[in-house]
Amino acid sequence: MTPSALHKLKSLGYLTSTASVFLLAAVSWSSAQKSTLLTGLLLGGAATSIIGMFCRWLSYEIEKRQKKR
């Protein structure tokens, strides 16, 4: 697999994971709305998951650019 194809696959994986976070949050939303604490936890959990995936993706981007130099 070429480095470019591998990078695209990693990016697709992170986008898929992000979409799954939104889907799972949507399913949980009606129950979480009943409690301010649960709403905060759901939003916080979704946000931290997406931020974590972004950080991992960004680290791959930085590594890719460093290898090109």
Distance between the termini: 21 Å
Q: Approximately how much beta-strand content do the residues carry?
A: under 5%
Q: How many whole angstroms does the radius of gyration measure?
A: 16 Å
Structural class call reads mainly alpha
Mean pLDDT: 92
| Largest sheet, strands/sense/barrel | none
Helical stretch tally: 2
Oligomer: single chain
Note poorly predicted spans.
none
Question: Helicity level, as a percent range?
Answer: over 70%
Count the E strands.
0
Order of helices and strands: HH
The coarse overall form would be: elongated
Any overview of this molecule?
It is a single chain. The chain is mainly alpha-helical and 69 residues long. The chain has a domain at 36-69. It has helices at 3-32, 36-68. The protein is elongated.
Keywords for this structure?
69 residues; single chain; mainly alpha; elongated
SSE layout and pairing:
Layout: H1 3-32, H2 36-68
Helix pairs in contact: 1-2
In short:
This protein is mostly helical and 69 residues long. It is built from two helices and no strands.
